[in-house]
Design a protein that fits this description.
single chain; 221 residues; alpha+beta; 4-stranded antiparallel β-sheet; 8 helices
Length: 221
């Protein structure tokens, strides 16, 4: 977001920035907290969880360069969800007042923010749509998104270099941990998604995509 700033302008911004390091599982902010600064992931990854009835729903996973809770910060409202470090993560934080001063002087940042809002809105609409389909399809779609976003080619397959426990996967699909365990265990035996120490290997994205889409055809048929 700050790539449009020249070195001198970044130098002005620098004194207002602070770096915070979060351990795996540590909370960056909690749902309902008052916003006081804008946060950006520098290293690692952060999950955004929204409490819904009797379980949490993983709204999105954020990686390096992405802002956390920026909509709440810009609207000056409490955080609508919680943010938790998925792995050891470094976060850059800027006080709201200083950030808004920079926006006033750099309309190009505003344009980037508008683009971000459009993307966020589309993601939310897709997320709501996904919640209407079967759990297995939701898990498949979530892994497809991760594969496209941060996946690394490994032979004919795709490796997702992000460790998610079964509770994370359950949150991602908005289901119970027992259901997540059952799906991932079956997929592991069938070679659909192979769990590794530091992530997941998807031997065939097409096979996983078939699970996400074929069932929709079956249901509509």
């Amino acid at each position: 977001m700050f790539s449009c700033l020249n070195p001198a302008e970044r130098g002005i911004l620098l004194p207002h920035c602070r770096i915070r390091v979060f351990r795996k599982g540590e909370t960056v902010f909690t749902e309902g907290d008052r916003t006081t600064e804008l946060s950006f992931v520098v290293f690692g990854s952060v999950k955004v969880l929204k409490s819904a009835q009797d379980r949490n729903v993983l709204v999105r996973l954020l990686g390096p360069g992405e802002p956390i809770g920026i909509v709440a910060s810009l609207q000056s409202i409490p955080y609508p969800a919680s943010a938790i470090a998925v792995e050891p993560s470094t976060v850059l934080q800027i006080p709201e007042r200083d950030f808004f001063g920079i926006i006033d002087r750099h309309p190009e940042i505003t344009r980037q923010l508008l683009q971000l809002f459009v993307i966020r809105q589309a993601e939310l609409a897709q997320r709501l749509q996904d919640m209407m389909v079967s759990v297995e399809r939701r898990v498949a779609r979530a892994l497809l998104v991760l594969g496209k976003k941060i996946g690394q080619r490994e032979g004919a397959g795709t490796f997702i270099p992000l460790w998610l426990n079964r509770q994370d996967i359950a949150d991602l699909a908005g289901t119970t941990i027992e259901t997540a365990i059952r799906i991932m265990s079956r997929w592991g035996k069938d070679g659909v998604v192979i769990t590794r120490e530091h992530g997941f290997l998807i031997p065939s994205m097409e096979r996983l995509r078939a699970i996400a889409e074929a069932r929709e055809d079956e249901e509509s048929g």
